[in-house]
UniProtKB/TrEMBL annotation:
This is Pectinesterase inhibitor domain-containing protein. Pfam families: PMEI. Residues 3-151 form the Pectinesterase inhibitor domain. One of its GO terms (molecular function) is enzyme inhibitor activity.
Amino acid sequence: MAQGDDLITHVCKITNDFVFCHDTIYSDTRAIYARTNRVILAYIAIQKTLNNTIDTKDVYLPSEIKSIEAGGGESNILQGLKNCFGNYAGVNRRLADMLDELDSVMNYDFDKLSLEIECQVHACENGFNGRSPMTKRNDNLIKLANICYAVAMLFK
């Protein structure tokens, strides 16, 4: 870690999008404590990612699927969204595993679980024949998983 950097700055510097990382972490009221506490920083990163995936899986995807089913939309888009629902369910399981590891102080697999999240997101994105209606949400989730990965490196 560079001289004078707090943990948040250090983590955000090694992500793919410093501003996104910084804004995400500092949108949490616990961020002031996360500047020097890697466990609090990990909780923030995981919770922000979990909130994103819950919204996508439990609100956005069901709404989109219902809308396409009601309107007779493109079947490949419908199937892609249904596949993404499964991918996001997998992401939620991995995030729950990350929280369990953090709670049990057995946080050695954060990095692997973060990479598994990225794989699930890429599978969702690639499940469409052509343009994906999930691109923006998937891009955000990849950035969030990248933050989780960077935080995981604090435990190595």
